């Protein structure tokens, strides 16, 4: 069972690129972030045409998450929860579309797009930390139920110095602040497994390259897209990886897909 995450950075702009990746790699489950569309604008029919069912939690112009399941391979998708019950940055904001949870063939899939937190310090960074604290609570609930679970998506956290091409270049960014890293480390300390880190303990694996300053061409990237596994899933992990080549294609997202394969 191959489960993948992909920050698509605008589903309408990247739709041909996304469909190409789905048909090339055929994950059983694909979690998407930054779909950047309201619910009524989600291109569900395009995914149905290639054999994927979908659920989504959209928001106009910003954020947005979705989960796709390969129905041709017999996978079924059942929504469990949308949102974590956290208000936006400004008082009176509706909850931002950043979290979606579903069951796929006995595995709980939690797709997330964690707040960036910049500029730091400020209210957006405060919101980021509050969001991470609420995420930890939800993950603890899943843990207590002993549900085989995969929590994955764009965490907007660079966990270690060897997860970035240049520590100096990112040292003032919210993605690398001690508070952000500590909040991520607490998730792992609770017993969750970072799939990519487990297979690449020395780091040096990137999932994001900025559009600016020739970052892709110079391989100036960092790792912020993560897959966390409950013990029930960690024991079933056969392989994981990063589909780096898709970042180099025309009109690509600034992220690239990340995946894990679990034994049935």
From TrEMBL:
Which cofactor(s) are needed, names only? Mg(2+); Mn(2+)
Cofactor: bound how, per the entry note?
Answer: Probably binds two magnesium or manganese ions per subunit.
Database matches in InterPro entries: AP_endonuc_1 (IPR004808), Endo/exonu/phosph_ase_sf (IPR036691), Endo/exonuclease/phosphatase (IPR005135), ExoIII-like (IPR037493)
Site residues by UniProt (Interaction with DNA substrate): 255
Q: What are the residue positions of the site described as Transition state stabilizer? A: 156
What GO biological process, any one, is recorded here? DNA repair
Name of a matching Pfam family: Exo_endo_phos
For this UniProt entry, the molecular function terms from Gene Ontology, in alphabetical order, are:
double-stranded DNA 3'-5' DNA exonuclease activity; metal ion binding
- Keyword annotations for this protein? Hydrolase, Magnesium, Manganese, Metal-binding
Q: What is the recorded name of this protein?
A: Exodeoxyribonuclease III
Q: What is the lineage of its organism?
A: Bacteria, Pseudomonadati, Pseudomonadota, Alphaproteobacteria, Sphingomonadales
């Amino acid at each position: 069972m191959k489960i993948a995450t992909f920050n698509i950075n605008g589903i309408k702009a990247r739709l041909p690129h996304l469909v190409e990746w789905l048909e090339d790699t055929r994950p059983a489950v694909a979690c998407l972030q930054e779909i950047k569309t309201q619910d009524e604008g989600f291109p569900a029919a395009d995914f149905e045409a290639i054999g994927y069912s979908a659920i989504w939690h959209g928001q106009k112009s910003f954020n947005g998450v979705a989960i796709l399941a390969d129905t041709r391979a017999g996978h079924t998708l059942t929504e469990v929860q949308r949102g974590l019950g956290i208000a936006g940055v400004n008082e009176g904001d509706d909850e931002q579309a950043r979290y979606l949870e579903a069951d796929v063939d006995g595995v709980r899939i939690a797709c997330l797009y964690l707040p960036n937190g910049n500029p730091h310090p400020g209210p957006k960074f405060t919101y980021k930390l509050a969001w991470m604290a609420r995420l930890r609570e939800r993950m603890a609930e899943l843990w207590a139920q002993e549900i085989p679970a995969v929590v994955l998506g764009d965490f907007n956290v660079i966990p270690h110095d060897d997860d970035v091409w240049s520590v100096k270049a990112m040292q003032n960014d919210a993605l690398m602040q001690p508070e952000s890293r500590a909040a991520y480390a607490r998730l792992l300390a609770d017993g969750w497994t970072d799939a990519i880190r487990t297979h690449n303990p020395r780091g040096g694996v990137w999932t994001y390259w900025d559009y600016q300053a020739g970052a892709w061409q110079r391989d100036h990237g960092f790792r912020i897209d993560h897959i966390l596994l409950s013990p029930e899933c960690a024991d079933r992990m056969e392989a994981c990886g990063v589909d780096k080549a898709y970042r180099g294609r025309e009109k690509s997202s600034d992220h690239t897909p990340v995946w894990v394969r679990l034994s049935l």
